Amino acid sequence: MADTKYNFKDFKSDQEIRWCPGCGDIAILMSVQKAMAALDYDKEDYAVISGIGCSSRFPYYMNTYGFHGIHGRAGVLASGVKTANPKLSVWQITGDGDGLAIGGNHFIHEIRRNIDLNIVLFNNQIYGLTKGQYSPTSLFGQVTKSSPYGTIEQPFHPGELVIGARGKFFARSIDNKVADTTEILIQADKHKGASVVEILQNCVIYNNGAHNAITSKETRDDNQIWLKHGEPMIFGKEKNKGLILDGLNLKVVTIGENGISKDDILVHDAHQELPYIHLALINMAVADGFPVAFGIIRSVEAPSYEVLLEEQIKDVQSRSKIKNVDDLLLSGNTWTVD
Amino acid sequence: MDKKIIEVDQVVIKFAGDSGDGMQLTGTQFSNTSALIGDDVSTFPDYPAEIRAPQGTVGGVSGFQLNFGKKVNTPGDFPDVLVAMNPAALKANVGWVKDGATIIIDTDSFTDKNFVKAGCDAEKLKEIYNDYNVIEAPITSLTKESLKDTELDAKSKTRSKNMFALGMVYCIFDRPLEHSIKFLENKFAKKIEIAEANIKVLKDGFNYAVTIHAMPSFRVHSSTIEKGVYRNINGNTATSWGLLAAAEKANLPFFLGSYPITPASEILVEIEKRRDLGAKAFQAEDEIGGIMTSIGAAFAGHLAATSTSGPGLALKSEALGLAVITELPLVVVNVQRGGPSTGLPTKTEQSDLFQALFGRNGESPVPVIAASTPSNCFNYAFEAARIALEHMTPVLLLTDGFIANGTEPWKIPSMKDMPEIKTQFIGKDEKEYLPYLRDKNMVRKWAVPGMKGFEHRVGGLEKMEVTGNVSYIPENHEAMSIERDEKVKLIVNDIPELKVEGNKDADVLVVGWGSTYGHLTTAVREMNGAGTKVAHAHFNYINPLPKNTAEVLSNYKEIIVFELNLGQFAKYLRMMHPTNHYEYYDKVQGLPLTVKEIKTKVNQILEQL
Asked: Using one digit for the tens of pLDDT, what is the confidence trace for A102-122?
């Protein structure tokens, strides 16, 4: 337990922030600092680990232990830190290029292993630091510097990858919703295992307004649904829209129409092991007539890698005759020359 | 029948058969028994890359060569005795045995069908009867006969034939059977019928050799070895244990991040077993994951290492640069194999030297050291870790397939005799932590997550001197580049001087590095014994080179550099010490040097002097 209470300012480093004015990263930085201040760790027990990209400059702006790694490798760097010292609260800061393109392999494997990491994925659907090439989450047909005639690649949905890698925790938020993001990050840390938080982040320079259909003032109430475990899936300006299961598919309905009452609306169960409904929620898109799901979509308990490893070490140590290196060197077949 | 007993100091035996014939086990058993009765032993397993290569073909031949007796430093150039379980094994090896060697063949497998599979002419192969002492033994049918009263299925019976061959060779060299009997009892403790069958076949093989008067035809002089407790060890196990020993000595937890790759996988496998010592082994999803998790563990305050072979080192290059610029302690073990690309995965080579020295972007100096025998992999792994921790730098340790898989008896050291290792942790009571403040050796201090008050950031971007903040200042980048380089150069004060073996007033110096030690020292010792003046200097420290290197090299008229590549170390010496003339002797066949070819080369140079 911490012997000091922190203010989020305690987590600010003395380095000048070099993100572009208006960049979504700045709000995310504040959300992380607020989450850390609210959590129970001592400041020296936080480690912030990143790869390469705009988002990956993050550790320099945090007054914690931090490691700015190489492109795509934040996941394995963070995995090493956490496996070595499970007492630490380890935060992996990554983006859609760093985490899902060059680091895609590490991303699926850290999730599969279920290492207790807080993986914060900034999704701006573009490469910012290299000045505007398309990323693995750029939309099909999107025109960028490296796709002058539109991309001919289908994008990843990060949450779908998480489910595909048998992930146990997935949440989604928006950069400028600091209070919501902070709360989600706190829950992500409390979840033991790999927690992925996708944050829709706006790149003001190379992909400004990419998330406008979801985030703009005019449309946001109808195009966002904020899920809470145990509560019905209701959204809309009038709070009269909801989701039901129609056969195997989700369907948007209006409460009070066609005999639909509040009791018919699906109740969110983030803890259910079977991922099918979580997957359906993750894949909802405005273009298909659905709101985009936010909040903690999936949170299922499972043993984490570093805990299993420590347990295995204790178990083997309790049974083995080899207690130190001298014992090891003398184990097995030896003979004495007199 | 009178038997002539041959008195010798050393005997070389090669067991050869299909890759499923159990030749590795047979060879290991003979080596262990010989070591137990006090012989020096050196072994060389030589097997195909395929797990079960096509049966009966030359490509599928698996061999195990061993040399035992007195003053043994190599597995021997050419076998005195060859055991060939089929025509392919004979065809693959007959060109490499000594003149007049004894060849034991399993006549049951010398069928027309197997001659075709081996792609050889039965008549032509029979010519060996003129040149060699061939012992024909129907090993397969005698094994079946030996087990006719057991319940085992036909396949299991045939599988025991390697024990028949082992029994015969034990008889020829007058070795006791107890050690192998004990081994079989332990190995098949839960399948007692298999243990009993193998033991029966082993004894029957021994007795068969007595019956046909194949028995003791050699008397091998035993070694006079130092008192102590001994064991057999191969280079990969020794490397693993050396790293664990360093962690214990430095009072640090140990972490290995790795990915399976031939011929380095055994290091990962060994560390995975060592949960009992609290070691954490992490089998990553790829080579990059192997080194990056290790860098993460180093950042978190562990002694961290990663193990690989050439292609894996190529994948780790960028991450190794990250360890260079962040100045974190890390050991990278490269068990070299034939390259480039996939090359010859199961064969040995020393061709990653340039990759180790120079294979990274930017000015990226890394200390490089090389082990030279299976057992001293322990010492050089320990040494790599010591240098990494005391100088806050990644260190590259080079071994290769030859010493990684080869075994020799090893006098077990005691941990109390191992050198101390001083870690560079910042004192808990220090008021301030400046991550890139350097001491007189240019070494920075180490603060790790969990230490209160020393929170700081490291990373791959260039850092300001002292503070470690990101800096793009041109002069600072140059200063930091020089400081990192200087730090590695200063390690020269912390490593032993180069030693010269052999003739004191020789004009010719044989130079080698790494795993060629055994062959070079044997060649030079034998030449000295025959009155030839030649000396030998062997390098274990490659970067930096020992302080007295220039002085040693300047004492000779001719320097011949022997290595298993196209002259990489010779070129490196020419770059570092350009005033000497270097003669090259290069071999890139996936095979170790032979003592014979070393002598031939030295004599050729001596004649020209």
From this structure: 999 999 999 999 999 999 999
Q: Tell me if B455 and A78 make a contact (CB, 8 A cut-off).
A: no
Residues of B in contact with A165 (CB under 8 A): none
Question: Is pTM, for the whole model, over 0.90?
Answer: yes
Cβ–Cβ contacts within 10 Å for residue A164, how many?
15
Give the torsion through C-alpha atoms of B401, B402, B407, B409, to 10 deg: -130
Nearest chain A residue to B229, by CA: A336
Widest Cα–Cα separation across chain B: 89
pLDDT value at A331 more than 60: yes
pLDDT of B1 strictly over 60:
no
Helix and strand totals (H; E) in chain A: 11, 12
DSSP sequence for B429-480: T-S---TB---TTSPPPB--TT-TT---EEESS-B-TBT--B---HHHHHHH
Domains of chain A with bracketed CATH = 8-231+268-305 (3.40.50.970), 234-267 (no CATH)
Confidence of residue A4 (pLDDT cuts 50, 70, 90): low
Which token pair is B38?
A: 């006090």
Annotated domain spans of chain B? 6-220, 231-417, 500-608
Distance (Å, whole) CA A58 – CA B338: 43
Q: Which runs of E-coded beta strand occur in B553-602? A: 558-563, 582-586
**From the DSSP assignment, how many helices (H) and strands (E) are in chain B?**
22, 23
- Summarize pLDDT for B237-275 with one digit per residue, the tens: 999 999 999 999 999 999 999 999 999 999 999 999 999
> How is chain B split among helix, strand and coil, in percent rounded to 5?
40, 20, 35
Model confidence pLDDT, tens digit, residues B318-337: 999 999 999 999 999 999 99
- Tell me the shortest Cα–Cα distance from A33 to chain B, in angstroms: 15
pLDDT digit string, tens, across residues A253-277: 999 999 999 999 999 999 999 999 9
Tokens standing for B266?
């055994």
Q: Tokens 């080192």 map to which residue? A: B313
Could you report the per-residue pLDDT of B292-311, keeping only the tens digit for each? 999 999 999 999 999 999 99
The shortest CB-CB distance from A83 to any of B32, B297, B451 is to B297
> In angstroms, how far is CA A232 from the centroid of its own chain?
24
Q: Which of B280, B322, B470 sits opposite A84 (nearest CB)?
A: B280
If you average pLDDT over residues A15-29, what whole number do you get? 94
Which residues from chain A sit within 8 angstroms of residue B457, using beta carbons?
A: 13, 59-60, 62, 65-68
Q: What is the DSSP letter of B305?
A: E
pLDDT band at B539 (very low <50, low <70, confident <90, very high): very high
* Per-residue pLDDT at B120: 83
Whole-number percent of chain A with pLDDT over 70: 99
- What architecture (CATH level 2) is domain B231-417? 3-Layer(aba) Sandwich (3.40)
- Report CA Rg, chain B: 26
pLDDT at position A2 is 47
Q: Which amino acid is at B391?
A: H
For residues B254 and B301, what is the distance between their CA atoms, to the nearest angstrom? 9
- Domain B6-220 matching CATH 3.40.920.10: the answer reads yes
Instruction: Establish whether domains B231-417 and B500-608 are of one fold.
Output: yes
Residue reference for tokens 């320099």: A60
Quote the CA–CA distance of B411 and B403 in Å, as a whole number. Answer: 17
ipTM: 0.97
The CB density around residue B449, as the number of other CB atoms within 10 Å, is 26
Which residues fall within 8 angstroms of residue A337, CB to CB, at 6 or more apart? B38, B225, B226, B227, B228, B229, B230
A246: buried, middle or exposed (CB in 10 Å: 19+, 13-18, 0-12)? exposed
In this structure, whether the domain defined by B500-608 belongs to CATH 3.40.50.920 is answered with yes
